Amino acid sequence: MTSALENLATGFATALTLTNLLWSLLGVTLGTVIGILPGIGPALTIALLLPLTSHLDPTGAFIMFAGLYYGAMYGSSTTSILLNTPGESGSIITAVEGNQMAKRGRGAAALATAAIGSFVAGTIGTILLTFLAPLAIKLALKFGPAEYFSLMVLAFMTVTGLLGESRVRGLISLFIGLAVGLVGIDTLTGQARFSFGMPQLLDGIDIVVVAVGLFAVGEALYIASRPALASAKIEAVKGSLWMSREDWRRSWRPWLRGTALGFPFGALPAGGTEIPTFLSYTLEKKLSRRPEEFGRGAIEGVAGPEAANNAAVAGVLVPLLTLGLPTSATAAIMLAAFQQYGLHPGPLLFSGQSQLVWGLIASLYIGNAMLLVLNLPLVGLWVRLLSIPAPLLYGGILVFSTLGVYSLNYSTFDIYLLLILGWIGFLMRHFGFPVAPCIIGLILGPLAEQQLRRALTISQGDFSVLITHPISLAFLLAALAIIFAPFMMRRFLGVSAVQ
Amino acid sequence: MNTGGKPLGELVLGFALVLLGILILAGTLSIAVTPAYSRVGPRAFPFAVAAGMIALGFFYALESWKGTQTPAEDHAVNFWPIVLISGALIVDAVLMPTLGFILSSTILFVLVAAGFGSRRYLHDGLIGLALSAVAYVTFVYGLGLRLPTGPFTSWS
Predict the structure, then answer these.
(1) Does the pLDDT at position A49 exceed 50?
(2) Is B70 in Cβ contact with A391 (below 8 Å)?
(3) Which region, left, alpha or beta, applies to residue A197 given φ > 0 means left and ψ of -120 to 50 means alpha?
(4) Cα separation of A276 and A267, whole Å?
(5) Do A175 and B53 touch (CB under 8 A)?
(6) Taking the complete model, does pTM exceed 0.90, yes or no?
(7) A404: closest CA among A39, A47, A57?
(8) Whether A328 contacts A272, CB under 8 Å
(9) What does the domain layout of chain A look like in residue ranges?
(10) A198-218 pLDDT tens trace
(11) Do B118 and A391 touch (CB under 8 A)?
(12) ipTM of the complex
């Protein structure tokens, strides 16, 4: 305990320098903006920033990225409430319940409970991160290559099995990512693989191109081809921005319960922010004395899920920082950012780069406080962003997308590649495939291969090493269980969330 | 996408995935292997990916055929915007080295906006030009990126 507090104190010393405060402010502001704007999310934005930040100080860059991730969760709730379009997948529930509140003239109260709930959950989540990270590091030290490989297999299964409505589609998305990850020189033998004789492909297909192609170009093609999706009605912010005593009374328990659901879902390799928001909504509806209000603007149905998605974001940082295991698309891009700086999340990061890690964690407390100010009194400012017409918004997104992708290698080859991945992204959306497993497969696939081959080199080719190590066996069994669990979970969620 | 009761698009996609798996398999077999690594060399993992892709593509097609795979939501798809936006990216990639970042991005902006149904070409062009110019100045002078200047050689 004491060592975590000491580390946190030195972290604050790093985070409170003027430069890092400015990085944090830039991150949370940018996060709020992209969270509010439909069509851009934190994964896409961090991907676009990667080539631009490659020669910056990594501490500042990661403080900005983490602030951006938190900020996007705050901002997307605003869009969900006022536009009925979830800015991010974690805000789907808010888009239903919060928009109902806005339609009934309670938009301001919905925004307030979302922002304060996000602050409460984000802060509790960050406290949990502070104290759990050192424990997770102790666990990580026990892991060898076999354990890491099995853990990654487990992460693949949770990310694909729990997200979306079809396991087959999730797995196909994962395998597309794994396949793209194969392209380039094999790191262990130096053999060229799947480069089709093109020198541009020897270094592999950059995750920036894949993320920007799937998210920005794919999304643009999808929305543009469906005229019905391009227009939506913005609700005006009505009512007092301060919640009434009644609103507070009805909100604080859902905040805490949402936090309790969200954090573990992010921290265990269970994938993403979506599931806990659905669980939180279902739970609040069950516990409510007025369940008939749900679906017609119940404040609990905004407070709980909004707390859950922010707590999940804090949770996601635990496996990312301590094990190098991303459980969301944004975390996968952040892992790519660590790789860009030659840093490897895990025990070595905490011992060798403790200033960076603890500065990052401390900055989350500061960022959360900044976000509360940005999103509560200043919300009227951001709402104007929603009136940017879609043609100009997507025109701008694609200009910045090509800028980011071109500057990777200063080559227009990557723009053609971007278009091809955009088509893949379009097809995935068209046929209802989730995109996140593809991104995670791309970044984690080559790492899983490395760990597997390391494990098998140590065991001299004996595959039984994966099941004779007890931790590894446990992960693989859990992965198997996951394949069967979502079927039951989907029934439970599907029945209760639709009604 | 429903043609004659069977989801044609899903079936085609399923078989395309099987085909992709077969291509990965073929690619895997062409990876040169040094004997020292023969047991778990550079082929093992691609082989697993190929096998998984073939199985999943087949399974997806089968589920779609039987109707157990819930089909994706059915919106009317407009193909013209897809052509326009794809064309915009190709034009951008072709013109950027000669016209420079600012002008090619302006053209990209106008074409994408047109893909989203805007008909105010001059208005969009001016906004696109301003945005591209600001982006150029910020990233070239602020962050030291090297973007193609095009005809504005005196700027660099």
Answers:
(1) yes
(2) no
(3) left
(4) 12
(5) yes
(6) no
(7) A47
(8) yes
(9) 2-498
(10) 877 888 888 999 999 999 999
(11) yes
(12) 0.90
